[in-house]
Amino acid sequence: MSLETKIMDQMKEAMKAKDSVALEALRAIKSAIILAKTEAGATDVLTEDQEIKMLQRLVKMRKDSAEIFTKQNRPDLAEPELAQIAVIEKFLPAQLSEEEVEAIISKIIGETGANGIASMGKVMGLATSQIGGQAEGKVISGIVKKLLA
């Protein structure tokens, strides 16, 4: 079942349950899917990798917004953002723990023989392709820096 079909089914459920927060998050995902499909040169079908990146971008936007609202002492605005994150994350693959990410990156460094921060680009490329949507780029980058330093 495609992501778009799952989203439509969940939207129907959210409408029936009168869950406005979930409905808003699902509509944002649907909107992002439509935008991705209509971009110049895009095909009618999104790959799983494209879907994951799009969902991660939506989560990141909401995390950033929630952080700003929290800093401005506006919990009334931060709470809906955090609730939407929970809805969007249901469609993402299970996230790896930092220990699991560190183990994968250590293996990559061992296989490539990378040493020093100069090899960071090569390690990041391999790590990002292997770990994919199972960890945020920020986490991967931080671990790579720590292990190569």
From TrEMBL:
Gene3D superfamilies from the UniProt entry: 1.10.10.410, Uncharacterised protein YqeY/AIM41 PF09424, N-terminal domain
Q: Which Pfam family, any one of them, does this sequence belong to?
A: YqeY
GO MF entries: carbon-nitrogen ligase activity, with glutamine as amido-N-donor
Q: Which InterPro entries match?
A: Asn/Gln_tRNA_amidoTrase-B-like, GatB_Yqey_C_2, YqeY/Aim41, YqeY/Aim41_N
Q: Which domain of life is it from?
A: Bacteria
Q: Know the name of this protein? A: Glutamyl-tRNA amidotransferase
To which species is this protein native?
Answer: Flavobacterium cucumis
